[in-house]
From TrEMBL:
Family per similarity comment: Belongs to the MscL family.
Transmembrane segments: 12-33, 81-102
Pfam name, any one: MscL
Swiss-Prot/TrEMBL keywords: Cell inner membrane, Cell membrane, Ion channel, Ion transport, Membrane, Transmembrane, Transmembrane helix, Transport
Protein name: Large-conductance mechanosensitive channel
UniProt function note: Channel that opens in response to stretch forces in the membrane lipid bilayer. May participate in the regulation of osmotic pressure changes within the cell.
Cellular component terms (Gene Ontology): plasma membrane
Any GO molecular function: mechanosensitive monoatomic ion channel activity
């Protein structure tokens, strides 16, 4: 079997294609949730905290250094915990929505029907039952 035919067989298996589709849909879904967080959730939180953007929350370790002309000589060193907080909210919302979708999917999925035993097992059971009589 050639390398190309093996690769084609690998790619055309159902689970590889399903995984690729899931990755693309997941990436698009992540963008939707990020837009929700950035455009709706964070402005509401900013409004509740006095109009300061959550992404701008930070703890300044050393402020920016300016020269006499007002030109920045050294950049500010700060711990930007607001960006971290915003990313955590983004992750929690994505995880919550995925959990709810999976929960609904599992609820809708029908319970597997018990498979009938093979013919030889049925025949052996019938023989056993007739011997008991």
């Amino acid at each position: 079997m050639s390398l190309i035919s093996e690769f084609r067989e690998f790619v055309l298996r159902g689970n590889v294609i399903d995984l690729a589709v899931a990755v693309v849909i997941g990436a698009a879904f992540g963008k939707i949730i990020t837009a929700l967080v950035d455009g709706i959730v964070m402005p509401v939180i900013s409004m509740l905290t006095g109009g300061v953007s959550v992404a701008d929350w930070k703890f300044v370790i050393t402020p920016a250094q300016l020269d006499a002309a007002g030109k920045q000589v050294a950049a500010e060193v700060a711990i930007r915990y607001g960006m971290f907080f915003q990313t955590v909210i983004d992750f929690v919302l994505i995880a919550l929505v995925i959990f709810m979708v999976l929960k609904a999917y599992n609820r809708m999925r029908a319970a597997p029907v018990a498979a009938l035993p093979p013919e030889d097992v049925l025949l052996l059971r019938e023989i056993r039952d007739s011997l008991r009589k």
